[in-house]
Amino acid sequence: MLTCKEAEALIARRADGALETDDGVALARHLRECNACRPLAEDQAIVVRALTARPEANVPLGFAGRLSDRLDAEVSWADMLNWRTWTVRLAPVAAALIIAAAATAERVTAADPIDLAQVAETWAIDPELTELPTTALFWQAEVSADSMLEAVLTADPDDPLLEAGYDQ
Amino acid sequence: MADAGTDVDRELVEAAAGGSREAFDELVRRYQRRIFNLARSLTSNDGDAEDLTQEAFVRAYRAIKKFRGDSTFKTWMYSVATNVIRAHMARQKRRGAFWGASLDADAPEAPERAVSREDVEGDVVRRDAIDKALAALPEELRVAVTLRDIHGLGYREIAELLDIPIGTVESRIFRARHRLRPLLEPLMTRTTSSSPGASQSGGQSSGRPVEAKAC
């Protein structure tokens, strides 16, 4: 025999006419013997009758027109997102920009290339210094990895070369 | 088995997906009343119902090309509309929680005052009374029972639409009706007094808050 919990689903279905025949037999047997479920089944049917009789509301006047306006706007947005539409619409703008750029452009010549070695030499070697600063190692052509690591770890923050570097 | 309406829907959907605005407009005409009533019965507010119905159709319009036909257009449209309406209800709930229930003008009346016997005359008042009683239910129960008893969707359709097991649908519908019973008492007294078999159940059930209990 069905338990009351199992019967609930069948009671709900019986109330709105969605109960299978086999289930109907089992539920009828349960309801004959269960005083608690019988009134529940009756109440379910009464609520179904009340809800199915709910009078339908009419769609508000002018609804179709207002929705149509929104759908028209959607079409416009879809057009804006379409690259083909953009290509066609922006072609005159692009042409105008190219013409304007060509008319106002000045001839630009590239600067002479910078000789970095020369810059470094004049920058790093100070005739006033009696010995080269630690960071001068960075400019030497041949330097071991250990020396480079030591230079990094022991670099003096007040090193004029570093300061000069920060100022550049 | 597909009925004639479903076949017409399928043709209209194909045309709409192909870019026919006229076909989509026809789909709107076929479903606007149902979707508006769904929104109306779930929100109890005409203004919100129109906004939400519009929003549902706009979203359907955007997504119509992605509709694969795994379900009927009706189920799909109800699914789109239900998602829009549930998102709205969730926003309303958050807003109510933030500002306090007393400041929420759209909040439904207390269940005890949702329906009075004097109010049940006339379609508008009757509809309003039912919608207010529905508004007193938790959202998950309200949506399930509305889709079943007012819009006639099948249990399997509702399960698919809400993405929940069919047993959960049955349980929610049972519990929703159980809670609606005392809220709709004035309407049901009127309904049962005019229906055969009313004397059998109406007097016995009227007004009592029935508690479900195990045998």
Top-tier CATH class of the largest domain in chain B: Mainly Alpha
Mass-distribution shape of chain B: globular
- Helix content range of chain B: 55-70%
How much of the sequence lies in strands of chain B comes to under 5%
Oligomer state equals heterodimer
First-to-last CA distance of chain B: 40 Å
Order of helices and strands of chain A: HHHHHHHH
Which two chains form the greatest contact, residue counts included?
A-B, 45 and 59 residues
Major β-sheet of chain A, in short? none
What structural class results from the helix and strand content of chain B? mainly alpha
> What letter string, H or E per element, gives the SSE order of chain B?
HHHHHHHHHH
| Helix segment tally of chain B | 10
Describe the structure.
The complex is a heterodimer of chains A (168) and B (215). In chain A, helix 1 packs across helix 2 and helix 1 runs parallel beside helix 3. By secondary structure, chain A is an all-alpha fold. Chain A is built from eight helices and no strands. Chain A is elongated and about 115 Å long. Chain A folds into three domains: 49 residues, no CATH class; 42 residues, no CATH class; 52 residues, no CATH class. Chain B has two domains: 107 residues, RNA polymerase sigma factor, region 2, helix turn helix motif (Rna Polymerase Sigma Factor, Chain: A); 87 residues, Orthogonal Bundle (Arc Repressor Mutant, subunit A). The longest helix of chain B is centred in the middle third of the chain and has 27 residues. The C terminus of chain B is likely disordered. Chain B has 215 residues and is mainly α. In chain B, helix 1 crosses helix 2, helix 2 packs across helix 4 and helix 4 packs across helix 7. Chain B is globular, with a radius of gyration of 19 Å. Chains A and B meet through helix 1, helix 3 and helix 4 of A and helix 2, helix 3, helix 5, helix 6 and helix 8 of B.
